[in-house]
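Hello,

I think I submitted the beta-D-glucopyranose job twice by accident. Can you confirm which output corresponds to this input? Input:
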Amino acid sequence: MNRIDGLLSRMTLAEKLGQLTMTASSYAVTGPVIAGDSTQSIIDGTIGNLLNMVGPGPTHEMQRLAVERSRLGIPLLIGLDIIHGHRTLFPIPLAEAGIFDEAVWERTAREAAREGAADGLALTFAPMLDVSRDLRWGRTAEGPGEDPWLNVRIARAKVRGFQGADLAAADALAACAKHFVAYGPVAGGREYAAVDISERTLREVHLPGFAAAVEAGVATLMPSFTDLNGVPMTAHVPLLRDWLRGAHGFDGVIISDYHAIAELINHGVAADLVDAAVLALKAGVDIDMMADAYRHGLPVALEQGRVSMDEIDACVRRVLRLKEQLGLFDDPYRRGAQAEAPAVIAERHAYARDVARKAIVLLRNELRNESRNESRNALRNERETLPLPSSVKTLCVLGPLADAASEMKGPWWGAGEHEPHVSVLAGLRAALPDVDLRHAPGVAIDDADDGGIAAAAALCDGADAVILCLGERATMSGEAASRAHPGLPGRQQALAEAVIARAHAQGTPVTVILFSGRPLVIPWLADRADALIAAWFLGVEAGHAIADVLTGQVSPSGRTTMSWPRALGQVPIHYAQRPSGRPMNPADYYTSKYQDVANDPLYPFGHGLTYGRFRYADLRVEPRNVRRDDVIDVSVELRNDGTREAEETVFLFVRDKVAQVTRPLLELKGYAKLKLAPGQAGRARIELPAAELAYLGPDLEPVFEAGEVEILVGPSAERAGLLAETIALLE
Ligand code: BGC
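Support: Only one job matched these inputs. Its output is below.
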């Protein structure tokens, strides 16, 4: 008899339900906490899994209770959220997505897994794969942004990164694809609200990332808190049991979200905890996180004949198998056995700085006259606002986020909470020791006091440049952080107006650095700032990375993976809209438009400037007549006409011109990166497997259909900036 069958044959019902229960320590709690003595329950075998505990000391201590003092000695599975780094915090996922580099996506997860495992963990509740097109929702920060194709690539890289080649390795963590599925389109962008989307949108936009995670071998998966078209995901039989376990063969562990099984009562589909436990078990949820519904509800349900022991055993078997795959039976202390060497940690910090630099998005960089006195010879003296010229002697570093080290952590800091973070001011001090740095916050991030504005603005007098650091507090995005007014909080707009007016009166350029976990609605700022940077939340090395970009040590190369709206009324706004029967035409009243704002975003998906100036030419697409098994070779010539080396991200979109169902105006299908020195030219190449041009037909089955498809290549999803060629698909 193998280990798992052997254990199952000896387990009492209470011990079985213990394996299906996960309880929090008090480390980081996002919902109600179960009272009681978990320590005794571990010894009794009635709690088999823990979350929110870190450090080899505490995790091994708990593990010892389970392994050495419980009757059957089954090791605990201990998990924690590692959303953007464990102790060494990296940029938030929304920022990291815009790096468009699979090696980076994978490595940050690998580094986080090493750190997490060194802290005694074997499981993390990541990656978060919720496509998000509504910036009111705060969990935009945790995910990939608006695009499903990109989400698929991130899903694969993250699963590889967390789990490594061997789940049993001392530095591997079981990953958890979450939140299954379509959590992003919560009504009104309001956290935990209901979701109502079409079956087509579900299949085209929200399911592919999870299918990719399953194909990549993800060990666990978490249903979302939300209800989808009337069925809460924690009890969603068609999607959990039929789609995931059935059609996609997922045989890993499904872990409920925090307290979510009990919340089936609030959803109004369960009358009590017994009902709730039955619904979740029938849907295929293996582990009950923090609801205590399985321990209390399943014994009753079993007695009533509403669930069978076989159904319970199937869940226990999956949990025990995961523990076995993680090597926990062989050596439960393997993770956390050895502290990481200081050199390894130092190297990781250096890497975090590199990643943070790559995640910075330069939204705007205006040309301006170099000399303060408007020269008649303006053209010859023109330069972009950034990088800062080496002639800068006095620099104003203003705003409530200028010296806000702890905000740099972003919304899900996990075990990095007490690590020192580098503020913008500290980063600039280190980078520019000879420059006179003047600093004032002006206002707090989010209160009504504007008493400090005048003094902050006055610091601009005589300065060579102004860096104004604005945006959200880290906790204004992330879980439970929806915003109905996602612009500048508090009195920051007043600060920006005063500072920009004062600086511009003297011809002093103002660079605005925005911190946020979502695109912000900032049309005024985008119009007035001379340079505008989306710094999101960049993690432990934020200030150094920002200084590297401001001073021109590196060229920015990050792209936004969510569209930035001009007005909140445009939300949800994303590039892959379907066509209208009455496309926008300013000359025709009865067309698809707003009366008071343009249709297009302020900054489109993929937008992000560099310090180079790239010209695109000579798009080549081969072959022109394409069969399903062909791989289409797409290439474009790029020339850097700027004065600095820079790396450009080139996007490949497609447009299926005539299909049986309406197709998006643009669909991302690839990207390439090319670094070019000033004056240098090169070719960016992207391979497009023709099979990716199949789409879901009227019956939602994939079809590969003869007809014309446009291939469009360029620097962002802005249609006017794309080169296009048409190919013919042959059946
Ligand atoms: C969040 C999950 C998270 C869990 C455990 C919940 O509130 O929705 O994303 O994994 O807490 O911390």
